[in-house]
Amino acid sequence: MLKNPMEALAWRGLVYTAFLLNFVLLCQFVLLQPLVSALGSKSGNAAELFERVSQSVKVKHYSEALDDLNAAIEADPSLSEAYFHRASILRQLCRYEESEKSYEKFLELKPRDSAAEKELSQLHQARSALDSALTLFESGDFSKALEYISKVVLVFSPACSKAKLLKVRLLIATKDYSGAISDSGYILKEDDDNLEALLLRGRAYYYLADHDVATRHYQKGLRLDPEHSELKKAYFGLKNLLKKTKSAEDNVNKGKLRVAVEEYRAALALDPNHLAHNVHLHLGLCKLLVKLGRGKDALSSCNDALDIDGELLDALVQRGEAKLLIEEWEGAVEDLKSAAQKSPQDMNIREALMRAEKALKMSKRKDWYKILGVSKTASVSEIKRAYKKLALQWHPDKNVDNREEAENKFREIAAAYEILGDEEKRTRYDRGEDLEDMGTGGGGGGFNPFGGGGQQFHFTFGDGFPGGGGGFEFHF
């Protein structure tokens, strides 16, 4: 029994104070237990901490490892190895400023430690290489920038997200789209909500013309951030390209060829760098222009397609057709012969080649229509009138001062009339047949109004002769 109220009050105060002290101790034990278990005692159980940190790093749980090390350093600021491990992890993450401070703190506790000095040097190299790579990327020297990232930065800072994403951008810039897909895939395995990785991977699929997969990447990114400007631009840009392409193709099917030409060109203007898709746009435009008979424009579009894919058979065939339109006969034969060798069973190509070879052959013979100055649709009377006029103009007796030239001209005029003035010979000539024995001058039996062996030729022009009265007769 307490003797008085004052003693009772003092006793209760003592009990309350003891309770508070025990509560505080309990809280300290609960809150500091991770540090106690991490550090153990001064007898060396800190090794457990570093083993756990090592395991976290192996599974790429860098935040957990840094949390453990920060807690250990807070509990024991003299724990030098914790600074070293923290510096190493921060270097791998390319958090260079924080890493440098941790290395320096470690070197204060353990001066001239060779391992720390080596890693600090690697940090400086990685930071310098990353800065250089960023500068080279901005200047357009993508290959050199990629070399800095791959051979320096990611060697000393393999967990550097900034460097990994820059590498993907550089792979896309150097048109290594498969490499970009692979590298961005590794990033997304670690962080499947990484918006920039989704954008870049989608862009790589886009440039491979795998538009469905590209669209899915863009859509996933936009679900995570509907206002992401680059993702929006990529997504709606792709939709517009596909819409323009489909519209051009639909108008071709509807027979609206001139409208389709403009839509093909509009689609090509959207992204000149999208070669895997544009090669088909160039080819479609080339075919369309050949169909419209616009040989020069068609040739340009076919060349654009072949510049992207030199083995594109359809483009080679269409270029041959375009060359036929502009009467580039030898080039047409060359293209179509090459196409026939690539696809020897294709009868359409063989037919086109035969047309080209015939056109080339015909281009090398004399154009009797041109010699008489008449069109290929001229009537018999028009041909006769032209012949009479030219024969009188170039008769050797009327060209004494340039007799040799006149004889040659007169010979050509007479040969032209012999073929074009004869319905059967003209028909055969128009079909492209060889008429070497009919005045073309190609063989021993060629027509020659001046003949050999003293033979005489008579050319008589009646009342229809220009300027004519009773007519003229020339003897050779």
Automatic annotation (TrEMBL):
It comes from the Eukaryota. GO terms for cellular component: endoplasmic reticulum lumen. Keywords: Endoplasmic reticulum, Repeat, Signal, TPR repeat. Coiled coil: none annotated. InterPro entries: DnaJ_domain (IPR001623), DnaJ_domain_CS (IPR018253), J_dom_sf (IPR036869), TPR-like_helical_dom_sf (IPR011990), TPR_2 (IPR013105), TPR_rpt (IPR019734). Its main location: endoplasmic reticulum. It is found in: Endoplasmic reticulum lumen. Residues 367-433 form the J domain. TPR repeats lie at residues 80-113, 195-228. The keyword Repeat applies. The keyword Magnesium does not apply. This is J domain-containing protein. It comes from Ficus carica.
